[in-house]
Amino acid sequence: LGFAPPILGIGIGASRPTKAWPIERYAALAVHWAKRAQGSVLAIAGPDEPHGAREFLKQVDDTLSLTTPDAPERSRLRARISAEQSPPLRQLCSLLSELSVFAGNDSGPKHIAVAVGTPTVTIFGPEHPFEWHPYPADRHAYVVVENIPCRKDADPGMPAWCGVQDCVTEEHRCMKMIGVDAVFAECEKVSRK
User: How confident is the model at residue 163 (pLDDT cuts 50, 70, 90)?
Assistant: First the structure.
């Protein structure tokens, strides 16, 4: 990859909007990682997010402008944050295998990262990890806000979940309640140093 380790991979894509953590939070996580872990970041956007990589990098630039007043330091940090738009499957597998840790929404790249042996941190919102995260939490952590009353769909005896495409009524609070520091802490915990 040519990045300074430890390398954080970020998967910004999701199968539907309600399963996506806000992109500005991913940008803040990337800046946080570059500063505190002194590593590099590679964000990956899928084919369903045609402007995902560009929007992520714009958010990174905005975050750096707000948090890093020193221009040379901003440039140094920005040089360690990159994004790929829709890499082919084999390239995606190769990229994911080189990471120290992969953080992302509950989506396909997370499962591929697990398959290639990369530690993961999954951000869950409307759906519960019970069904979609059959991995050991010591190596494949997840962050979820439990017991949100708007998760109303559930089979008997199963954890509640939400199947809405766009969250209007609850303003996507299942994802917005998850902070950057919580995700960063899990990434640091499971990362291959």
Answer: confident
